[in-house]
Amino acid sequence: MGIFNRIKQILVTDVRDLFKQEGRLVDDDFLRDLFAILVKTDMGAGPARKIRDRIGTDFRARKVHMPDILKVIREQISEIMDQPEEPIKFVENGPTVIMVVGVNGSGKTTSIAKLTNLFVKSGKSVVLGAADTFRAAAVEQLSIWSERLGVEIVKGEHGADPASVAFRAVAKAIETNADICIVDTAGRLQTQVNLMRELEKIRRVMTRQIPEAPHEVLLVLDATAGQNGLSQAQGFSEAAGCTGIVLTKLDGSAKGGVAIPIREQFKLPVKYVGLGEKAEDMVLFNVHDYVEALLSEDK
Ligand code: GDP
Ligand code: MG
């Protein structure tokens, strides 16, 4: 598979280091070391404790080999995540409206390009809404992607009301019978009350055309942000009504474990994963592949 290499390396290398000799006795030292390795992936103390305790219960005072331990870690993570693949759900009539939110630099605009690429490849038509009117460069960046991917874009002037751009983008999608409308938004912190209210306004404006819109609100999280991802997930899921997560930059991170506590605490499914800067660098999140990558022994 080779896509989650860095996370895979840290976990397997470090778990392997626990097994210098043939097998190892499961005692307090072992459990403490294992706990430290698990926490390094950013899965959080809760899940790490759960896995450690399980291994303690199953194997304490026994000699174990690495595959025994990996098997339990794998099972426990699958149990905690407990999610099927969750692609975007398309509505039957009219455009499916997707709004994309998150902090600055998390990878929103790039993820929109990647999603567009997936959708276009599956034969769907897409209209983009460049509602990040805060930075002129942001509109430019999305325009370049729209040209490259051959899809329509609705823009606003620099400083224009983002809600009006979102409104026009949805209108354009309806008018052209597009399958999907994806609206980019300016980066903001979950603690910036006024900017979080602005997201509410963007949503409200969309419902005037399609009562159920936006059908999906994707929170884009940078996997390298570690535990900050948790506060972002909390702030955004409450204020912006997120329906799922796009976890970006897993290619450059040894910390992809953050998807685990996010799932555990907020019940938000990770829908897609970003693995690079190109339009093709996105895959549907699959727990099985993720856990295998996290723990795979063949490096
Ligand atoms: P935005 O501010 O949230 O819209 O973020 P951008 O989409 O502009 O991305 C910020 C930077 O992160 C850009 O340099 C992107 O190329 C880069 N980036 C986005 N997603 C990924 C990813 O999955 N992997 C890597 N390595 N870089 C990414
Ligand atoms: Mg952007």
From TrEMBL:
Chief localisation class: membrane
Pfam families (UniProt xref): SRP54
Compartments reported by the entry: Cell membrane; Cytoplasm
Alphabetized PROSITE patterns for the sequence: SRP54
Residues annotated to bind GTP: 102-109, 184-188, 248-251
GO cellular component: cytoplasm; plasma membrane
Domain SRP54-type proteins GTP-binding: start-end pairs: 269-282
A GO term, aspect molecular function: GTP binding
EC class of the enzyme, as a word: hydrolase
SUPFAM superfamilies per UniProt: Domain of the SRP/SRP receptor G-proteins (SSF47364), P-loop containing nucleoside triphosphate hydrolases (SSF52540)
Reactions the enzyme catalyzes: GTP + H2O = GDP + phosphate + H(+)
UniProt entry keywords in alphabetical sequence: Cell membrane, Cytoplasm, GTP-binding, Hydrolase, Membrane, Nucleotide-binding, Receptor
A biological process term (GO) from this entry: SRP-dependent cotranslational protein targeting to membrane
EC code(s) of this entry: 3.6.5.4
Annotated membrane topology: Peripheral membrane protein
Subunit organization: Part of the signal recognition particle protein translocation system, which is composed of SRP and FtsY.
Similarity comment: family membership: Belongs to the GTP-binding SRP family. FtsY subfamily.
UniProt function note: Involved in targeting and insertion of nascent membrane proteins into the cytoplasmic membrane. Acts as a receptor for the complex formed by the signal recognition particle (SRP) and the ribosome-nascent chain (RNC).
Descriptive protein name: Signal recognition particle receptor FtsY
Organism encoding this protein: Lignipirellula cremea
